[in-house]
Amino acid sequence: VFIPLLYEEHFFCVCIDFVREKLFYLDNRCYDDFDETTFAYMTDVVANTYAEYLVSKGTENAVKVKKFMMINVPFDWQTREHNLDCGVFMMFHMMFFYGDIFDCELYNVEKRGLYRGEIAATLILSDFNGNRSKVLERVTRHNEMKVKLLPKLLSKRERINKKKTKGRAGKKNVQTPDSKIKDMVEDGPASVVGSSRRGKSDGLGCTFNCGMTDDKVLLVSKFMRANQALFAKMLSTRKEVLDYCLLDDHNLSLDEVVAVYGDGRSLTRGDILSLRPTVPVNTVVIECWALILNHIEHTEKSETSLMFFGIGHMDVIHTLIEHEGKGDENKDQNIQKLFDTWDEFVSKNTVPCNWKADLVFVPMVWEDHYFCVCINFTREMVEVLDNTKYDQWEETIIYKAADLLASHMSDYLEGKGDERAIDLIAFPVVHIKFNWQTYEENNIESGNFLMMHMIRYEGDIFEADLKSKVYRRYYWAEMAAALLLADINEERANLIDRVKKFSLTKGEIWKEV
Questions:
Q1: Is residue 243 within 8 Å of residue 220, measured between CB atoms?
Q2: C-alpha distances out from residue 216 to 213, 238, 382, 404, Å
Q3: What CA–CA distance (Å, rounded) separates 268 from 289?
């Protein structure tokens, strides 16, 4: 009788052998004094409890289990380390142990990798997997899709390799904070904000002539003055507009409208100021960011097709999560309200939405923490893009919110004629690992991270030094400039006129600051 156990993230197994009348402890970890460990105590407790269970079932000789000798089986692949593969070891112990040491190369890391695949295939293809036929149907469709995608994937891989080669060729031996700033200045804004699928326009979605990099600009806002070296190569008009909109201490109204997009979405100076890395981003900024990205996707076609939703759905999502599993008589009305919210955002776009996009981005916020759900139809995954690490991922509210959103998005997209959405409900919800993630919740900057994830993620990990506060300041400023100078900003001409008038008074302000 095999009983698998888990203690402090370590898997092991207890085998009760009625033939040999022994209690075997099966583990990939070795111990100096096993009898004194918590694992030995747990093994004893499990044996005694199982004996009582058998007595309750009327099994003969059940009590004698309590007298079985406990043996820690000495496998030759045991180590003193807490191995992350302990679950795989345990599953093989359960499969191959018959009371004697068995011969298996479990000490070989590559072999264990193969074993993992075999275990996964066994779980999926077992005769009593009630979902097997559906999985095999999806595999057939996926194979057909792979044939079509192969040329695209090869082209993408060549592009990535070129980037890596270029990066290695220009790599410096030592990088101090000052040299990092110098490198950024030399690269220029396009290499920082742009990605492999964008950057054809001036900045981001802007065809307006933004001046020269060598034009001298008098800066008076605290943020721009503190980072002058960082923005030395930024185009002059971008610096002028940012300097005006980031000035918050000289009687300029925070309610002044500086951007208007589509049918009624607008941003104020106060909204732009919320992009600074010292305060949380306003949700309307995320909403307008999605509008701009949809416009860019429509005008500058990318190899991987993309679609972006806004964030106005969060009130309904909160309600649906709070009532999940509790019974909600208004559930159908709330789901319809969610669909109406998505329809409303789609109607605000200045361009038609791509209902057959490869990647669908849905920004979300929970208790001031922003993150993004990316529905990846190419990989058939629901991918969560976040700046925070999690240990117990599937226990987090972020996982639950993403899972719930995916289930409703499946119905919504199916209603728009996307046949792929039928399978969406079966996509696994995965947490994408970025090297700038931390266990400490950075809610203040989470909105800025979200915007970078939306603009740069194409289904693969992208390169950006988001761990550096210096780099992040540069990114946030570029995103603010993009929001202000985008071609779809109907207020852009008026804003630039006001900036020009403001520039005439900068001399007096500069004396004060």
A1: yes
A2: 8, 12, 47, 51
A3: 14
Pairing of strands 381-385, 429-431: parallel
Which helix (H) or strand (E) segment holds residue 61: the answer is none
Q: How many helices (H) and strands (E) does the chain have?
A: 18, 11
Task: Quote the CA–CA distance of 264 and 92 in Å, as a whole number.
Answer: 61
pLDDT greater at residue 324 or residue 22: 22
User: What is the C-alpha to C-alpha distance for residues 476 and 457, in angstroms, rounded to an integer?
Assistant: 16
Q: Which neighbouring-strand residues pair with 267?
A: 259
Cα–chain center distance at 251:
40
- Give every CB contact of residue 397 below 8 A, 6+ residues apart in sequence: 321, 366
CA–CA gap between residue 491 and residue 359 (Å, rounded): 30
- Given the structure tokens 């695949």, which residue do they identify? 117
pLDDT of residue 183: 47
Q: Where are the beta strands (DSSP E) in 158-294?
A: 257-261, 265-268
User: Which residue type occupies 32?
Assistant: D
Please identify which residue in the block is written with the tokens 């275990």: 119
Residue 23 to residue 17: CA distance in whole angstroms: 6
Q: Collapsing DSSP states into helix, strand and coil, what is residue 489?
A: coil
438 exposure class (CB count in 10 Å sphere: 0-12, 13-18, 19+): exposed
DSSP 8-state secondary structure symbol assigned to residue 201: S
Phi-psi region of 492 (alpha: psi -120 to 50; beta: other; left: phi over 0): alpha
Q: How far apart are CA 108 and CA 77, in angstroms?
A: 8
Task: Output the pLDDT for position 5.
Answer: 94
Residue 498 has pLDDT above 80, yes or no: yes
- CA nearest neighbour of 27 among 51, 50, 4, 1: 4
Extract the tokens encoding 169: 């060729």
Angle of helix 283-299 relative to helix 469-485, nearest 10 degrees, comes to 70
Q: Which residue in the block uniquely carries the two structure tokens 């197994």? A: 13
Q: 0.70 exceeded by the pTM?
A: no
What tokens appear for 148 in the block?
A: 């079509």
At 180 the pLDDT is 39
| β-strands 257-261, 69-72 pairing | unpaired
